[in-house]
Specification:
CATH class of the largest domain: Alpha Beta
Radius of gyration: 22 Å
Number of helices: 6
Distance between the termini: 80 Å
Largest sheet: 5 strands, mixed
CATH superfamily of the largest domain: Oxidoreductase, molybdopterin-binding domain
Strand content: 25-35%
Oligomer: single chain
Number of domains: 2
Helix content: under 10%
Order of helices and strands: EEEHEEEHEHEHEEHEEEEHEEEEEEEEE
Shape: globular
Amino acid sequence: MSSLRGPTTYDLEPPRHPSLKINSKEPFNAEPPLSALVASYITPEEFFYKRNHGPIPVLENPDTFLLEIGGLVPHSQYLSLEFIRKLHKHSVTATLQCAGNRRTAMSEKRAVKGVGWGAAAIGNAIWSGARLSDVLELVGIPQNTAATLNGGKHVEFVSVDVCKEEKGGPYKASIPLMQATNREADVLLAYEMNGKELNRDHGFPLRVVVPGVIGARSVKWLRAIYVLAEECQGFFMQRDYKMFPPSVDWDNVDWPTRRPLMDFPVQCTICSPEEGTSLKPRSKVTVRGYAVSGGGRGIERVDVSIDGGHTWLEANRSQLQQRPYISDDDGKRDKWAWVLWDLSVELSPPMDIIVKAIDSSANVQPENVETIWNLRGVLNNSWHRIHIEASHRKEIQSNL
């Protein structure tokens, strides 16, 4: 029996950075200041958003940890942490984003249900561990398999945490078997984050990382992996993290009519200056932010407007290379990671700054949040706008 367990109380929570904005204490959900996101291409663990559905699990003895691999597989196995660490180590630079990122802006238009995230429920890290496709080969499932002989088509990940949504049961989610067995999809059983052992907030001792997909599928505190004929039937796959049109509310929602969310859409946010900043006329400012798209799609362009969207200026884009990374054909892009962007402009407030991004598949962010409003407040990727105030501070005149 594994010594990884999910507590039922919040008495054993790990320490957190004091600058985090806490959106809920129990369970603990928090995001960093926006400015922290553009301070570094790789997000430090302490500034990586914390998303939880229950108390943080505890591993009492790493030597007794066992990961179950079962379901519709030729050979079920239990793998120790030591064994997993001896498999070929693979590293991926990938951005994880909560599906509720920027939910607060959506709720300002019309009430939604969910944690009140700002625009910092996102982070970019170097994840290291064993490829899921390599682990599945150990139980008899070859690479690039869409279905097993006995009908397995999905891979379910089961945690040990205690979730009220699952009536005290564990968090679980699934992805298609073809994605799980595709080496190019870079799905990991990660035990390191940014070159260090995972900490408890981020899934110690083992978590799944599914690049390019909403964070809800990258299950933390992993206990078991099952190959199933159908996708996971848990709460977070069947009654949450689905996107409905604005006409659907809690009185007429029909959960089975929509598929679970997977890839996240193109997204772009201003991180500096922040909303409500006061500036003098003709201030020279460097506007900074992040842009990302799901499914391995890169960012083709970031456009910034300082005149209400009448005209647009193209921002500079960069990925500050840090090994190891995955390159696309031109060798200049981390496939699953965000880009940081900046643009130096002269501002004369009061005024708004607007930003939007276009990805490599020509997907464009929608202009208005009203067109994508949904009852759970997920996937708000409308144009990001911030207001800059005019500074009324009088200049002190010297009499000397």
